[in-house]
Amino acid sequence: MKKETYNIHGMHCASCAGTIERVLLKTKGVVSASVNIASESALIAFDEGIVSEQALAKAVASVGYHLEIKTTPTQPHDADSGAEKTDAKHILLTVVGMDSPHCAMIVENALKKLDGIKRIAAHFANQKADVFFDSPMTIETILKTITDAGYTPIIIDEKNKDEADTWLDTEKIEREKQARVLKRKLFVGGFLSIAIFIGSFPEWFPFAPSFLLNHWILFLLATPVQFWVGSQFYSGLRLLFKYRTADMNTLIAIGTLAAYFYSASVVLFPDFFVKSGIAPSIYFDTSAIIITFILLGKYFEALMRGRASEAIKKLLGLESKTAKVLRDGKEIEIEIAQVRLGDLLIVRPGEKIPVDGIITEGDSEIDESMVTGESMPVRKTVGSAVIGSTVNTFGAFTFRATKIGKDTVLARIIKMVEEAQGSKAPIQHLADVVASYFVPATLGIALLTFLVWFFLGEAPAFQFALVNFVAVLIIACPCALGLATPIAIMVSSGNAASKGILVKDAASLEIINKIDTIIFDKTGTLTEGRPQLTDIVSFDTGISEQTLLQYGASISQKSSHPLDTAIIAEAKKKSIVLYPSEGFQTISGKGLKGLLALDSKKAEIYFGNRALVSSVGLDLSVYEEKITLFEDAGKTAMILVLDKKIIGVLAVADVLKKEARKAVSLLSKSGIDVWMLTGDNARAALAIANQAGIKRVMSEILPDKKSEKVSELQAQGHIVAMVGDGINDAPALTQAHVGIAMGGGTDIAMESASITLLRGDLLLIPEAIGLSKRTMRVIKQNLFWSFFYNTAFIPIAAGVLFPFFGILLNPIFAGIAMALSSISVVGNSLRLRR
C-alpha cells in the first residue's frame, strides 16, 4: 500500500476537486483519494500491485486535469559517500506575504507558467514553497516571478534547512525590514492624506491654508501616496496583465487609480470637462485615504497573524544546534546534522538533549514540558527513552541515538502541526467555491455599477458612476472569506500542540466535536499498560506484609515474567534486601519454585496461582473468599507458600490510570456513549470498566476483530472515536471517524490515528473535544460575518439604497470597512489562543 501526495494542474474550484476525487475513487486499486483545491494537490492511497502512478495520471487526464508524477529529489548523503547526481534542481523558499490559500494559488499559478518548472508545492500556513525545476530555469527567474506576483521570497539554505535559526532569523530580518518600510509609508501617507482631506473640504475646515485649496498642490500631494505609499497594490495589475489572474490587490489598484487618474485629468484638462458639461470635481482624498487606511489594516493584520503562527516558530526554536558525541573514546562537539544513528551522546545538567535515544549510563529528571505539555520533570534511568530538544534538569547521562533528523519526535510533531495548519476542513468548501469566483464577479459588478449609473443615474452621472465604481471595488474583501477557516485552524492546532494534543488534519479537528460514541482500548489506554503490585495480605499473624514482599521478590529475582517483574520493582522501590535463592524452577502456567537462604535455614518456597498450590497438596478453601475478591477486581492473585504452609497472597494488576474515571465522567456528561474494548475475559474487563465508570463493555475481542466492532457501531449511525495505543489497535483507529493514539504507544498506532495525545493523558480527550467546539464556533462566526459583510455591503456600495433613501457609500468608508473585515476575522480567531 502506498500513500502519496501529487500535484494536480488545471483545478479552479471545489467542483474540480470533486470531479477528480470521483474518478480516482472509481479507479481499481485506489483505496482513498482526497483532493485539496487550496494546495492543488491530491493525497491518494493505492495498491501499487493493482494500479500504477501512470494509470492514476491517465484517470485524472480523462476528466481534463493533469496529475504530476513526482521526480525523486536529491537526497543528502554522508560526506564521504558523495551525492546522487541528477539534472533536477530544488529550491526551498520562505515566501513572505503568502498567508492565505488564494496567495498560495497565485504563487503556484505564476511559477507554473515558466518553462522548466517541474513541481511546486506552496504552503500558506508556514509560508514555504518547494520548487523543483530543470537546468534551463534559473533561481533568479523564480525569485523575480514571485516578486512580480507581489510577494518576497527568501532562499532557505539547503545545507542548513534543518536548523531552525538559519531561516527563522532571515525571515525575522525580512519581516522587520518590511515593518519599518510599512511604518514609514503609513506616516507619510497619513500626513499627506490629512493635508489632502483638509484641502478638499474647505467648507468643513475654514482654517485650511489657502495653498491647500489649489488643485495642483493636491495633485502633487496625492501622487506620492498613489505611487509610493500604495506601490504594493500594483502587483495586482501585474497579475492581471501578465498571468491573467486577479486578487484583492487588483481591485484596490483599479479602484484607487480610477479615482486618481480622473482627478488628475480634471487638474490637467479642466476646460475639457467644462465644455462637456461635467462639473470638474476631484477625488484625490478618496484614493489617498483609501490607500492609507488599507495599509493601516494590513499592518495590524500582520501583527496579529504573527501571533497566530507562533506555535510552529516555538517548536522550531526548540531544536538543538550541537551535540557532544563519543567518537573513538573521545568527547567531541559536532553540529546536530552530523549525529549518526547509534552514536553515544553525553548530556550534562541544564543542556538540551540533541536527538531521541535510549539512556545507557546515568540517570536524571527531564523537563519534557515543551514537547508533551507535562509540567513536572520526568524521572529517567538506564533503558529509558529520551526525547530530543527536551531539557536535562540535573543528572549527567550517556544515551544512544535511536532517531535523528526528520524521524525525531519533535520533527514529527512539527510536520504534523504544519500539515494540520495547511489542511482543509470540510466546512471550508463553501468558502473555497465562493472565493474562487469572487474577484472576477466583483470586477463584473463594479463595471455594471458604472454603466448603470452613467446611463441611468442622476446628474452629474459620471461622478456618481465613478464614485460607486470605486466603492464596489474597494469594499469587496475576498481575504476575509479566504482567512475565515485557515486562520482559525492555524491558531487552534498550534494551541492544541502546546497542550500535548497533535491534530493530523483540519477535518479531524472539525469531526471530533460531533462524535456521539467513544471506544477505549483497555490495556495501555485506560490502564497503565504494565502490571503493578496493588495488595499484600498476610495469612500468618507472625509474618508482616514487608516480609511477604521480601519472600516474593527473592524467589522472583531470576524470573523475567511481567508479574514477577512487578514484584521486584516494588521491592526495589522500598529498598528491600533480597534473600539468595537456590534451585530456582519455573513451573509452566503455574508459577515459581525454589529454596531461599533465610537467616538460619533454607526454606522451600512456592509462588504462583491456584494450580500451583493444588499441586503441592494444600487446601485453599479457608482463603477462598479473599482470593476471589482480588480476582473479581480483575487482579492476579499470587499465593505464597513457605515450607508447605500458605502464608499470604500478593495481588498484581494492570492498574487504571489515575485520571481515567474523571475523563470518562466528563465524556459521559457531555452526552457521549463510552465503551471499553478488550481481549480480556468478561470478569477482568468488567472489573476495570467498573473502576473507570464505563457501563458498555466489549470483552474477549480478538485483535483482528477490533475494527469490525467499530464498523458495527458506525453502521448503527454513530459517529465513533477510537482510542488506542498498540499495533493491534491500528486498524480500528483507521476505521473510526476519529482515531486517537496515546503518545506512549507504538509508532504504527500514532501513524494510523488522526489525533495523538503526546503525554497519554486521558483528560486531553475532553480538552480536544472542547477545543474543537470552540474552533468550529469561531469558524462559523468568521464565515457568517464574511458572507454577511460582502453580500450586504457590495450592493450598498453599488448604490441600491440611493433611489429609496438617498444613501451612497463614500469610497473612503468602504476602504475602512474592508480593512476592518480582515482584522476582525484574524482577531476573532486569536481568541482560540486563550
Please summarize what this structure is.
The protein is an alpha+beta fold and 834 residues long. The protein has 31 helices and 30 strands.
Helix fraction by DSSP (H/I, runs of at least 4): 40-55%
Q: Number of DSSP helices?
A: 31
Mean pLDDT over the full residue set? 80
Low-confidence stretches: 72-86, 158-167
Radius of gyration: 35 Å
Question: What is the global morphology?
Answer: elongated
Give the CA-CA distance, first to last residue. Answer: 41 Å
Strand content: 15-25%
* Largest beta-sheet details: 7 strands, mixed
Q: Class by helix and strand content?
A: alpha+beta
How would you describe the overall organization of this protein?
The protein is α+β, with helices and mostly antiparallel strands and 834 residues long. The chain is 48% helix and 21% strand. It contains 31 helices and 30 strands. Strands 18-30-29-28-19-26-27 form a seven-stranded mixed β-sheet, with helices on both faces. The chain has a six-stranded antiparallel β-sheet with strand order 10-9-11-17-12-15, with no helix packed on it. Helix 25 links the parallel strand 26 and strand 27. Helix 5 runs antiparallel to helix 10, helix 13 packs antiparallel against helix 17 and helix 20 (545-556) packs across helix 21. The protein is elongated.
